Amino acid sequence: MGISCFYHDSAVALVNDKEILFAAQEERFSRKKGDSNFPDLALSAMFDECKVSLEDITHVSYYEDPNLKLDRIAKTFLWGFPKNSRQIANFVRHFRRERYFPIQYIESKLGKKVRIHKHHESHAASTFLTSPFNSSAVLVIDGVGEWASTSIFLAKRDHPRLELIKEETFPNSLGLFYATLTSYAGFKVNSGEYKFMGLAPYGSPKYVELLRRNLIHSDDDGNVKLNMKFFGFTRNLTMWSERMISLFGFNPRDPEARIRQFDCDLARSTQQVLEEIYVKKARHALEITKQENLCLAGGVALNCVANGKLRQVLPIENIFVVPAAGDAGGALGAALLTVVQENPNSRFNLFNLKGAFLGTSYSDGEIETALNEAGLRFKKLSSQELEISVAKMLFQEKSVGWFQGKMEYGPRALGARSIIASAVSPNMQSRLNLQIKKRESFRPFAPMILAEQAHDWFNWPKGANSNFMLFTADVADKKRVSNNKASANSYNGDIDLTKIVNMPRSKIPAVTHVDMSARLQTISSENPIHGLLCEYFKISGVPVLVNTSFNVRNEPIVESPTDAIRCFMTTDIDILVLGTYLVLKIDQANATLKLWENSKYVGELD
Length: 606
Fold this sequence. Notes:
Strand content: 15-25%
Radius of gyration: 24 Å
Helix content: 25-40%
Structural class: alpha/beta
Shape: globular
């Protein structure tokens, strides 16, 4: 068993020497976004799903070394004293013993000895040991793990080993550079970086040179050095320092304030600088390991735009990114590392991760009980009847909450806990964002496309896969209705994103971002949504649907039928599919609709 917890995105994973049995984040069960607590609920769900008990667990592993982490914190406080006295006081005020002494806590709680792995080793194992490669360069980039911020490993599957080749250390961190500017633009660190990335195409790269000259320097190998005069995370309560305000001439955005043209330009500039350094680091990793395969992990590896750039410019075709590339993936990496250490003479080639469906699942009986308890009218259909019926309704531009099989591991909904809709509808992006997801209007949606059709609709290599929605690709020229990129409509420093979002750009406008890109997910037969997408293709002639996570803003992706019902009944989703049970909003009794309308959940979700 592997555990990651006490920072953000706590998770638990269970493996044996042949396969991954379970992996899930605590937030899905606690319903607290990014939950950092010990994964009690995920652990309980794991026991139920896998039909095991604590006595069956032979080894418990933790995803980082808390002693090294404390060493970094203590030395950072010492170096910054007394200027960082407020930061130290805040640390003392919010001190939780289990967070900084987790091994003692976990051993006491579980009654088992805990094995420790380093943070970046756990990341590296999570991506290489689930990849299809026999050997690979592994590049791990995040904010910081103990002391490391970037690590390069040489990984080999024969007599498995991860050899650390090079390491970059705190405070020089590409991840913290990006996180700081994410925070400056009003988004939450460790969860809002993908919003910042999605905002970038609405801006211009006007601050690129300013960032290069003043904030971050990189050499030809991608080694970075931050100018700490502009960063506050080593001494302040904010990620930035006052000098950054003077540099930009704009104050940081309040999280709920309207997005400014400055925020868009800052996002575009920051993304460009990150991509430049990311490419340098990846090239260097391949050069010094003499490999033709590349595995990626760490929070920065969730930047699908940067991953798409790597595909365009690197002299290799084989790039793999583990779906849970952030800290949640550390639980899986820690468990896999222990398996390797316990079987040093074995060759491991059975952990190939074709899908990320590693979480909980529910029986028909459990689903039907939840539907009856919610007072809903429903039908039970055969799989084929369901797929044909839902495909027809999607063609009529209905939105569908889709709940099938085992829950996905990682931050993306991949076809088991998804909201799906027509990609052809010109108004679907705004409708999903504002009426269903209850989130910012500028946020793009991802296309799910039949794998064999991807090269025809996108600039994507024939036969290549993007199973985990971790690469962007441009819409193919022949599918575009305009090659003109929308320009920002500014008014007193603000930007009217709604007008830009609704401008048609392609034959699949709901998934075409302002710069003609899309965060691609290719769908093969292993995916529980494959049959539905095939039926929709037969009806529409379009092998593409919108895929977004089954949740609303500030809520984790749904885990249970009850979660799915609550989200369905308190939003404008038209149809709910739970296994082979079909629920239509239009079929529900007025009294039931009224009851849910007045439900306590509505206020929470809004």
